Amino acid sequence: MVVTYLNTRGKEILRAIVEAYIETVTPVSSQHITQRLRLHLSAATIRNVMAELDILGFIWQPHTSAGRIPTDKGYRYYIDTILQPEQLTLQERELLGRQAFAEDEAFDELLTEFLHILSNFSKYTAVAFSCFDKDRFYVTGASYILEQPEFQDAQKLQPILKSFEREEPLLAIMKEDLKQDGVKIHIGSENLCEEIQECSLVISNFKIRARNMGVLGIIGPRRMSYPKVISTVDYVAQAFGERMAGFDIWEAEERA
Fold this sequence. Notes:
By secondary structure, the chain is an alpha+beta fold. The chain folds into 2 domains: 8-82, Winged helix-like DNA-binding domain superfamily/Winged helix DNA-binding domain (Arc Repressor Mutant, subunit A), CATH 1.10.10; 90-255, Beta-Lactamase, CATH 3.30.450. It is built from 11 helices and 7 strands. The protein has a 5-stranded antiparallel β-sheet with strand order 4-3-7-6-5, with helices on both faces. Strands 1-2 form a two-stranded antiparallel sheet. A hairpin with a 5-residue loop joins β3 (125-130) and β4.
């Protein structure tokens, strides 16, 4: 259960640490927080708050001389309590919907194209599961994993790539999430699939004519831009469902 007892100052500093780490991929110092927030607080006060966040398990210090890094618990608190989704701009929505699709495209071809759009827009790996297409697992843009600083170490990268090949552990997460509407976020150790516990999985179910038919989303480092990622995944999932709703295949399916 996520704790809810951080005061305003604690929330503000935790937010600054999470967002600074997302941008820089380096441990965040108290000096950086002072410069970032421009608060009328002494460096000693900020260090004390950071020490409290450390004790509470929201951040940790990889080395005694380093700054702090968010923990899975810190990311979860940030997402559930602090984060405000960043709405897509009109230009971004147009970019995501700019592709023209032929009316006679097969279901799997269309889903793959939507995943390409999602992956190329977010610069993360896109994944999907469809219960219409015999529980098929889709993955697009796996090369984006290779570009993340966290995964330059082959020992961290290999299990992730292996999870794409095994499929079933990721499918198990997606099938469970299919039971609930909206965006779901699995952070690091929250993932039941051990191979991706260095990652976060952000996915949303898609509906076709009011029926849950699958999920799609992205997998990337725990250090991802959650405000924009959440909005993007939600938008693409809804757009795919709306696009598929007009296909004749669903009329045949409903008559069967």
